[in-house]
Amino acid sequence: MDIFLQQIINGLTLGSVYAIVALGYTMVYGIIQLINFAHGEVVMIGAMVAYSVIVALVGAGAPLPPLAIVLCGALAAIPVCMAVGFTLERVAYRPLRRAPRLAPLITAIGLSIILQHLAMIVWSRNPLPYPQVIQSVSYHVTGNPNGATITNVQIAIICMSVLLMAGLTTLVYRTKLGIAMRATAQNQQVAGLMGIDINKVIALTFVIAGGLGSVAGVMVGTYYGIAHYQMGFLLGLKAFSAAVLGGIGNLAGAMLGGLLLGIIEALGAGYVGDITDLCRFASWSDALAARCASGEHVVLFGSNYQDVFAFIVLIVVLVFRPSGLLGERVSDRA
Fold first, then answer.
1. What's the rounded mean pLDDT across residues 193-213?
2. How far is the C-alpha of 113 from the C-alpha of 119, rounded, in Å?
3. CA torsion angle for 57, 58, 61, 62 (degrees, to 10)?
4. C-alpha distance across the termini of the chain, in Å
5. What is the pLDDT of residues 215-243, one digit of tens each?
6. N vs C: which end of the chain shows fewer Cβ within 10 Å?
């Protein structure tokens, strides 16, 4: 039971990050039906910018508490990622708004590669150790010293994600900008006739998505203690999968899909590896027998293959419910 509870905690932490990134995907898709595959690189840039600021503050011996140093890094990353999101929309996506759907998709993939290489030029190709300025403190969930634990960093990530989700939901459903976003998502032409500045609304959607991505990047860097110019690719792909799993274009679906994906990965990595030990089949292969004889624990699926479980579940859901868990079947727009 303690192992199960620990995996749930780990899954909620990871799923909270997926949910924040998935919200960026689903907002853009809900407005203009565009899959912004460069969003993962926006997350990466947020992590890198925050890394640079945190390293500079720590190196300068700034008399600030650890939490304030991380917040300074996040506050520096947010406007940078917002500017990147605005630039992507204005320069790359707006001219292709009425182009065939394949054109913006290819453009998004190209922008993803460009941003990766720009980050490699600025921050090098080597993994960067994220400064662990916040000391990790573990709390026993069940009171058992050997039982499940949750750290202060995990608590902060989960709480911050809940606040961001609540804030975004309030923005979309309780403000004039949110009304304009929903009107634009329903029908751009009619929204324009009602006096809504369509270009401004779409640009602000990219800006908000960039801000969410920057916070997610800081979360990932702080939690895993490492940043890399390619870190956004797989993270973005899995967050997009979470958005599709919950129902692309649906805010609640993105949140649900992210949390489910994180829990599925954690449980899969924690349990499936224990029942797929290939050493019991060592007699079938000399190479496998040699690896097992050397003491190596050979498994078909395990913690190193946690990505497999997420995409297996995604495929199953798409086969039986292509619109996602909370998505609705809609007809193509004329």
1. 93
2. 10
3. 40
4. 53
5. 999 999 888 888 889 888 888 888 888 88
6. C
The SS3 assignment for 247 reads coil
Residue carrying the six token digits 């990871």 = 14
pLDDT confidence band for 288 (50 / 70 / 90):
low
pTM confidence score: 0.86
Q: Residue 131's closest CA among 218, 1, 260, 205? A: 218
Length, in residues, of the chain: 334
- Regarding predicted confidence, which is higher, 131 or 283? 131
Contact 50, 218 (CB under 8 A): yes
Q: What is the dihedral of CA 152, 156, 158, 163, to 10 degrees?
A: 160
pLDDT of residue 330: 45
Q: What whole-number distance in Å separates Cα of residue 184 and Cα of residue 191?
A: 6
Report which of 74, 306, 69, 122 is spatially closest to residue 228, judged by C-alpha positions: 122
SS3 196: coil
Q: How many other C-beta atoms can be found within 10 angstroms of the C-beta atom of residue 33?
A: 14
